[in-house]
Design a protein that fits this description.
Length: 626
């Protein structure tokens, strides 16, 4: 996911922009750039392939930037055009009058490019973004040549040009635009890619993610789709729709704090976030669970209690880790709330012409709230008449804004590309929803009380599991060089096996597969080779004996058993080479605990293999393109 930071105010903007980009690094990128309007009134652009530090060195050592109080910066995750300096943002038009940074995809860029080339414009890159910059420059020149153009008070020619150009565009964008003829005007616009405006003291910091704003101000405006803003120093702001209809800005308070984005004493964000899980789950539960009464209170869905109660089917959708959470949600909803539920990949749902009957509820699960496939599946379900709920971490994100209602995770910012605390908070919310709905259907109060009290015990139980970090590191050290692992589980732990395999794959680049333990005999058992690490979730539950049988089948073929088991289970040691224990918990709540050793296994294996844990190759924190 690309990152945008823009500034207009009374400070020299380069440090704000560069530090802002560094706050967005976690989202994944392959090049970066910055543009400012210097005191000479010219636009100065610097771009570099690779890390932001490469851009910084370029500016410091060979290509300094002029002092400026208006500018923009961008980290690019290549979609159109390879990751080269020429394709990096910001892009300028061919008269160097306009500079622009962009998140999203201009779908009709090739048509627009052909029209602009016919008008004599020369392009230098392969990107859709340069086409947008060129289009705005072209429109601006045409407006400038026109006499007597009518501008509303506070309006600017640049804003007008942006509006006219965007009316030609199809696709998605979050953009910031500057113009050398209006050095005190920053124009931003949004359609499908998030943009927040940080309202500072006589300054504005615009970004695609709160991480770049939080150290400057907690006052933010979330631009809505098809909205734009014209920002000038002196807290002079005009917000409108792209069609130039005034919009009253709503200033909100940022929930996150700067220290939540800091690494602290940890070596990696992923480890920090694994260890933050007890606190994150506590925050997620706070004010929502009454253990005594067995009551769940979810303000975000209170107005839809009736729809949830009478729903005949739930569709839980997401990608990656979010989909794994949805799969556990499927089990929870059918097991506890006794309602037909289906977990489906968003990317599949949106294209398979799905059936959506009356009284269907779609639950879109997403940490970032920006995953393109999940957003598209949500829109598809709504178009077919479903009610839509969001289970999302990032406040004000696109998915959160497009649902009828939702439940925020309150997990705090998740910086590591590998999702950990967001996953356990997604499970927490889905469990609360299952109890919330179940209590209004067939669940008895005692059952609700037992589950609610079990949930409230989870943070301390997670702390117990985390105490085994060193033991898990030793296990990881023994198998970190093995190139093939299997993760096996049954029931609620089948999705946990999938999640454990994904964690290992995405940060250590080891090939791993997760599957139902019973499925192994239908082919994958052929993979078992001498010394192959096979991770079993073998906790106390109604399928325990069957899991033991599966373990024996693997051992008989040379597999090495790493078991996640329930404290006090001595029997498991007879069948396992390594055991990590988790505290006793209700089966429905066990995934909240059994996933933690798997997160740690993946983390340590990746560190031992020298992988870039927080920024794994080829990955972005949020996949906002299809
Ligand atoms: C999980 O560790 C991965 N980073 C990835 O699978 C992620 O869960 C997926 O892209 C969904 O992201 P979202 O929760 O932000 O929608």
């Amino acid at each position: 996911m690309c990152g945008i930071v823009a500034y207009i105010g009374r400070k020299i903007c380069q440090p704000v922009l560069i530090e802002g980009l560094k706050r967005l690094e976690y989202r994944g990128y392959d090049s970066a750039g910055i543009a400012v309007i210097g005191e000479d009134g010219q636009i100065a652009v610097r771009r570099a392939v690779g890390r932001i530090s490469v851009l910084e060195s370029k500016i410091a050592d060979t290509d300094p930037l002029p002092a400026a109080m208006i500018g923009m910066a961008h980290t690019r995750w290549a979609t159109h055009g390879s990751p080269t300096e020429i394709n990096a943002h910001p892009h300028v038009d061919d008269t160097a009058r306009i500079a622009l940074v962009h998140n999203g995809i201009i779908e009709n860029y090739s048509v627009l490019r052909a029209v602009l080339e016919d008008k004599g414009h020369k392009f230098t890159s392969q990107t859709d973004t340069e086409v947008l910059a060129m289009l705005i420059g072209h429109v601006y020149s045409e407006l400038k040549e026109k006499n007597g153009i009518h501008l509303k008070p506070g309006q600017s020619l640049l804003a007008k040009a942006v509006q006219n150009a965007l009316s030609e565009v199809s696709g998605t964008y979050g953009i910031a635009v500057i113009c050398r003829d209006e050095p005190e005007t920053l124009v931003v616009a949004r359609k499908g890619s998030p943009l927040l405006i940080g309202v500072g003291n006589d300054e504005y910091i615009v970004a695609s993610d709160a991480a770049a704003i939080v150290e400057h101000t907690a006052q933010v405006i979330y631009l809505n789709d098809n909205e734009m803003a014209v920002l000038r120093p002196g807290n002079d702001m005009r917000t409108s729709t792209i069609d130039d209809i005034d919009v009253s800005p709503v200033i909100q308070q940022l929930e996150s704090k700067l220290e939540e984005y800091e690494l602290g004493s940890y070596e990696h964000y992923m480890l920090k976030e694994i260890f933050e899980q007890p606190q994150a789950v506590s925050n997620c539960l706070r004010g929502r669970v009454d253990g005594k009464e067995g009551r769940i209170t979810l303000g975000g869905v209170a107005n839809f209690a009736r729809e949830l109660t009478k729903a005949r089917r739930f569709i839980l959708t997401g990608q990656g880790t979010a989909w794994h959470a949805g799969l556990i949600g499927d089990y929870l909803f059918e097991d506890l709330a006794k309602v037909v539920t289906e977990a489906t990949y968003a990317s599949e749902f949106r294209y398979r012409n799905p059936l959506v009957e009356d009284n269907t509820v779609m639950i879109a699960i997403s940490q970032s709230g920006e995953t393109a496939d999940t957003l598209a599946a949500l829109r598809e379900a709504r178009e077919k008449g479903a009610m839509a709920l969001g289970v999302v971490n990032v406040v004000g994100s696109t998915i959160a804004r497009e649902t009828d209602a939702g439940v925020y995770l309150h997990a705090g910012p998740e910086i590591g590309v590998a999702s950990t605390k967001a996953f356990t908070c997604q499970l927490t919310v889905l469990t609360m929803l299952a109890i919330y709905i179940g209590r209004r259907r067939f669940m008895s109060q005692p059952q609700c009380q037992e589950l609610a009290q079990g949930l409230l015990a989870i943070p301390d139980q997670m702390r117990e599991v985390l105490k085994q970090n060193d033991a898990v590191r030793e296990i990881a050290a023994r198998f970190a060089q093995q190139e093939n692992w299997l993760f096996l589980g049954r029931g609620y732990h089948y999705p946990v096996a999938l999640e454990g395999a994904l964690k290992l794959k995405e940060i250590s680049y080891i090939h791993a597969e997760g599957m139902p333990a019973a499925e192994m005999k239908h082919g994958p058992i052929a993979l078992i080779s001498d010394g192959m690490p096979v991770v079993f979730i073998a906790t106390k539950g109604h399928q325990y004996d069957k899991v033991i049988s599966n373990i024996e089948e693997v051992r008989a073929r040379g597999g090495v058993i790493i078991a996640v088991a329930t404290e006090g289970d001595k029997n498991i040691t007879r069948y396992s080479d390594h055991v990590v224990y988790i505290p006793e918990a209700l089966e429905a709540l066990q995934p909240l605990l059994s996933v933690v050793p798997l997160q740690l296994l993946a983390y340590h294996a990746a560190v031992i293999r020298g992988c870039n844990v927080d920024k794994p190759r080829n990955l972005a924190k949020s996949v906002t393109v299809e």
